[in-house]
Design goal:
2 copies of one chain form a homodimer. The first copy, chain A, is of the alpha+beta class. The first copy, chain A, is about 45% helix and about 20% strand. In chain A, a hairpin with a 2-residue loop joins strand 8 and strand 9. Chain A starts with a helix and ends in a 14-residue tail after the last helix. Chains A and B meet through helix 3, helix 5 and helix 7 of A and helix 3, helix 5 and helix 7 of B. The first copy, chain A, binds a DNA duplex through helix 8.
Chain lengths: ~240, ~240
DNA sequence: CGCCTCATTGACCTAGTTCAATTTGGGTGG
DNA sequence: CCACCCAAATTGAACTAGGTCAATGAGGCG
């Protein structure tokens, strides 16, 4: 819910009670989108932004041949299309992978929020820039990392992102994607994803079964994936 | 120079004379970085942002094995690290490919600019979101497009971006990269880039010689690359 | 129980890599 | 103007990561 977002923001910038109240007052009712539905359609003009309260979603683009490229996974606390506020229309779609409970923020409410508290502009801008940073790290994966390293890196990313919103259980977390979904994100076929998962299992780094990632050895996995969490901007900045 | 930036902004949002003057007043002297120099180093804390006035630069990350992944090319009129304003430190480096003339904007000047004219927040935010959109399209390239299509798509992108800042000459433009640079951007080896360039030449789509891209047939090239310029957000939005 | 999606595996194929040699062309010093 | 140099481009031959195709297995659920 919205408290996840507030907690995420507060990890970086202290918010006054008044500011928190202001945020809460701007959210409207939650809407549930069923698994598989397209919540934001590429090219559409958009007048509100969706905060993901519960579920798993992804950004993707569809090609002419029907294939799709997933560009990011979104979990609870992610403002999935906040960038539609400055962009006004999105260049990609946002799809619910599981059922997703979403909270709507009208763009004009975001505008008034920023007018009343100009700090919010930088806080919200910051959140969208983290997505861009994630995109860049994925470019490194798709351009320079092969097979097992690429999958391992994604598992590390989703682990850290899930952990900050309290969605991990030790070294385990729920990641309800199919192997085909992983392939669409990482630029592999589902067959190859399957083989790579076996390799990670055999190396005792991580397993992926029943929609759940189990990291056997976090340090070894991060070393293997050359994972550095800096790009997720999870530590507090000294403003 | 800064007029390129102003022209770019005005393509989307009208600026008053006062606003233009305000922008000009915030820029400081231009600095020239020689080809090959790193203008912004990954991880550094940053207190100003650089506008590229002349030259070619790129964003990239360096891996442990010394390889680098280029994530975007930057041309005149691009605010290369505006996102360091909300992020405070960058997750990647910015390198001059040719000699680059840069204009510095102190972050506290950007803050005061926004305070005086809150519209600037959205204008500047918008500019950084276009970079994110470009990242996403590159993810599609690296994840889903092969060989010639990937190179062709980049040539289309750089053509459109160069054209809006007046850097094209008909269907030709200066793109001073080596084939190895192209490889580092597209996830190929320089050998394979060379072969793909030959293919594009033989198909009469485009040539790349003497640091210059010559598009033989724009329509055919865009069709071949499945290029849709929407992601560059070059048309005016009706605010 | 039966169906349907997803996971798994094998056999074969291909886009892109690797390694290494050769060529080209612009720049520079004499 | 020429000789030389060096980075970049080009090409061939052999190799491999990942793709394709196709069959089989396994779990969840109406």
């Amino acid at each position: 819910m919205i408290e996840t977002l507030i907690a995420k923001i507060q990890q970086r910038s202290a918010l006054s009670e008044e500011e928190k109240e202001l945020l809460r007052s701007r959210m409207t009712e939650a809407v549930v989108y069923p698994a598989g539905s397209v919540m934001v359609t590429e090219g559409e003009r958009i007048r509100y932004s969706l905060l993901l309260a519960e579920g798993l979603a992804c950004r993707s683009k569809y090609m002419v041949d029907g294939a799709r490229q997933i560009m990011e996974f979104e979990i609870a606390g992610d403002f999935v299309d906040l960038h539609s506020y400055p962009l006004e229309r999105l260049d990609h779609s946002i799809t619910a992978i599981t059922d997703c409970r979403m909270i709507k923020f009208q763009h004009h409410d975001i505008s008034s929020l920023i007018e009343q508290h100009p700090r919010f502009a930088r806080i919200l801008w910051f959140m969208t820039m983290v997505d861009a940073s994630i995109h860049r790290e994925w470019l490194v994966s798709l351009g320079s990392r092969s097979g097992a390293h690429r999958v391992a890196h994604l598992f590390c990313e989703m682990f850290h992102r899930s952990r900050v919103v309290g969605l991990t259980d030790g070294l385990t977390y729920h990641f309800p994607v199919t192997q085909a979904d992983l392939g669409e994100a990482l630029g592999f076929t589902s067959v190859h994803v399957n083989r790579v998962l076996r390799e990670l299992r055999e190396r005792n780094l991580a397993t992926f079964q029943a929609k759940r990632v189990r990291i056997q050895n976090l340090e070894a996995l991060e070393e293997f994936a050359q994972f550095d969490p800096g790009y997720l901007y999870l530590q507090r900045n000294e403003h």
